[in-house]
Amino acid sequence: MAVETILIVDDSEPNRALLENYLVSHGYAVKMACDGAEALRLFEESTPDLVLMDVLMPGIDGFEACKRIRGLPQGVDVPVVFLTGIGDIDSHQRALDAGGDDLLTKPINRSELMLRVRSMSWLHRLRSELRNGYNLIRSQRDALLHSQEQKDELTNLIVHDLKTPLTNILGYSDFLVMEPPQDPQKAVEMARCIGDSGRVMLRMIMNMLDIKRSEEGVLIPRVSAVNVSELLEKMSQDLGGLLSKRKVAVSKSKDLGATKIEADPDLIWRVIENLLDNAARSSPAGGTVDMEARAVAGDAVEIRVRDQGPGVPKEFREKVFDKYVRLGASEAGGQPRSNMGLGLTFCRLAVEAHGGKIWVEDNQPKGACFCVRLPIRSTRKPATHEKDIFQETPKA
User: Fold this and answer.
1) Residue 354 near residue 287, CB atoms below 8 Å
2) How far apart are alpha carbons 6 and 381 in whole angstroms?
């Protein structure tokens, strides 16, 4: 345990010396002041564990010095014991009114002094522990309330985002049943819109489930060989129609050829799908979303998704991957950046589950560039013996 420090305040040098020798011999550290002004200065420089305060001193007396100590943020819990040659009732009341904790009458009995010092030291430790406990409980309460507010906001956000694809599904399916189009191509287009809307809803639901699995420690990639170029090419084809409805084009560059990585193809697909969807929502109509893949340092593959939106300020580039975070207009350069609720959080967890990294940079001259780096060789064992609640049902 650290040595406790006692501040002795007395205008008599012999009294200070006697108290110092006695307290140091009992293992205490001592600081000394000759008046109230010096006591306040020393107190602010380094908070003691106990103050022994003379009452009658020139300038600022003991009662006034105690009042000022109680006005300091660090002076609320430090015990103050008055030392005085005046033992009348009025002095006791003034000591109480000044915020003192005890009063000893001179001449002071050494045994009585040590009993008071020990009891006041114990009182100081108890006060500090109670205040620290109170502050901890208050901070935990505030964090819990903030988390609940974020969850409520996220619930409202997800419900709002689910309404659009669900409305599309119900609207197109009702139209196909009630007024079947004569043109087969139009019917196919409506069916494709229903499928696209269903996939949007499924992605949002899977994001929530996988984040929950990650919190429980069971988000385990089912590793296999993945050809990155083929994956991106298929994504361009499958998602091109959906993104074109938002009047955003997708381009792909820097083919990796036959480069393969050891990864979970479903998780990586959904990571890039979330990033593409986020980029498309952030880009203006008629803009372009660029998707690039390249080998890095011979042992990793880096995938970059660039948009032409408002970008992400540097101070928010870590926060965009946190749960419940959604940048508003003032934080994203004048336009809100949709996070699809938990889309970017899922991306971070899925990438980290592969031993990779995800971050965001500027896209010159305008926009954001979300970067994913994945190792070519996985450090995970194949998932054949691992628990997977989404494992496909074996075919008969």
Assistant:
1) no
2) 61
Q: Is 379 helix (H, G, I), strand (E, B) or coil?
A: coil
The single-letter DSSP state of residue 88 is: S
SS3 226: strand
C-alpha span between 207 and 308 (Å, rounded): 25
Spatial separation of the C-alpha atoms in residues 251 and 340, rounded to whole Å: 22
Q: What is the pLDDT of residues 346-386, one digit of tens each?
A: 889 889 989 999 999 999 888 999 999 999 987 654 444 33
What are the pLDDT digits (tens) for 245-282? 666 777 766 666 677 899 988 889 889 888 988 888 88
What distance in Å separates the CA atoms of residue 127 and residue 77, rounded to the nearest whole number? Answer: 6
Burial 301-314 (b: 16+ CB within 10 A, else e): bbbbbbbbbbbbee
Within 8 A by CB and 6+ apart from 281, the residues are: 246, 337, 338, 340
Contact 241, 192 (CB under 8 A): yes
Instruction: Give the pLDDT score at 230.
Output: 86
CA atoms within 13 A on the CB side of 64: 10
Least Cα distance to 10 among 44, 38, 48 occurs for 38
Tell me which residue of 315, 290, 285 sits closest to 369, measured CA to CA. 290
Q: Is 137 exposed, middle or buried (0-12, 13-18, 19+ CB in 10 A)?
A: exposed
Axis-axis angle for helices 228-244, 265-282 (nearest 10):
40
Structure tokens at 189: 């287009």
Of residues 48, 11, 56, the one with CA closest to residue 30: 48
**Predicted structure pTM score:** 0.52
Q: What's the burial of 119, exposed, middle or buried (CB within 10 Å: 0-12/13-18/19+)?
A: middle
Question: What whole-number distance in Å separates Cα of residue 230 and Cα of residue 291?
Answer: 13
Question: Cα 175–180–184 angle (5° rounding)?
Answer: 120
Please give the pLDDT value at position 220: 81
- Mean pLDDT value of segment 339-348: 73
Cα angle: 372, vertex 373, 379; to 5 degrees: 130
Q: Which residue has the tokens 């009458």?
A: 105
Give the mean model confidence (pLDDT) for residues 34-49: 92
